Amino acid sequence: MVSRSYMSLLELASGDMLNFPQTPRTLPRVMTVPGIIPDIDGSENNNEDLDVPSPGTCQKKIIVANFLPLHAQRDPESGRWCFSFDEDSLYLQLKDGFSSDCGVVYVGSLKVDIDASEQDEVSQKLLEEFNCVPTFLPPDLQKKFYHGFCKQYLWTLFHYMLPMCPDHSNRFDRMLWHAYVSANKIFADKVMEVINPENDYIWVHDYHLMVLPTFLRKRFSRVKLGFFLHSPFPSSEIYRTLPVRDEILKALLNADLVGFHTFDYARHFLSCCSRMLGLEYESRRGHIGLEYFGRTVYIKIMPAGIHMGRLESALDHPTSSIKAKEIQKQFKGKKIILGVDDMDIFKGISLKLLAMEQLLQQHQELRGKLVLVQIVNPARSSGKDVQEAKRETYMTTRRINEVFGFPGYEPVILIDRRVPTYEKTAYYALADCCIVNAVRDGMNLVPYEYIVCRQGTPKMDEALGMASGSSRASTLVVSEFIGCSPSLSGAIRVNPWDTDAVADALNLAITIPDLEKQLRHEKHFRYISSHDVAYWSRSFLQDLERACKDHYSKRCWGIGFGLTFRILSLSPSFRKLSLDHIVSAYKRTKRRAIFLDYDGTVVPHASIVKTPTPEVISVLNNLCDDPNNTVFIVSGRGRTSLTEWFAQCENLGIAAEHGYFIRWSRTSNWETYPIATDFDWKRIAEPVMRSYTETTDGSYIEAKESALVWHHQDADPDFGSCQAKELLDHLENVLANEPVVVKRGQHIVEVKPQGVTKGLVAEKVLSSMISNRKPPDFVMCIGDDRSDEDMFESISTTAYSSCLPAAPEIFACTVGQKPSKARYYLDDTVDVVTLLQGLATASSIKSRFSTEIQVSFQHAA
Question: Distance between alpha carbon 735 and the CA centroid of its chain, in Å?
Answer without folding.
Answer: 36
